[in-house]
Design brief:
There is one protein chain. The two termini are 17 Å apart. It contains 3 helices and 3 strands, in the order αβαββα. Helix content is 33%, strand content 21%. It has a single domain, classed as Anticodon-binding domain (Rossmann fold), CATH 3.40.50.800. It is globular and about 35 Å long.
Length: 73
Amino acid sequence: MEYDETQSIGKRYRRQDELGTPFCVTVDFDTVGEGESDPAKLGFVTVRERDSMKQELVKIDELEAYLSAKLGC
């Protein structure tokens, strides 16, 4: 696991793509309910799949099961 808060999210995703990270999990202001966040996204993270670049919102408490299923664990 790696934590990164430098540069834009797109550049962060690209760095992780180069490293071969299969999934990136993004916690943003909506996740924690700060600023002008969307209340519907409170408690959700964005999961980005490297190969398809598809992004999905996943509840934090369902994240482990989501990733386990995707990784075939």
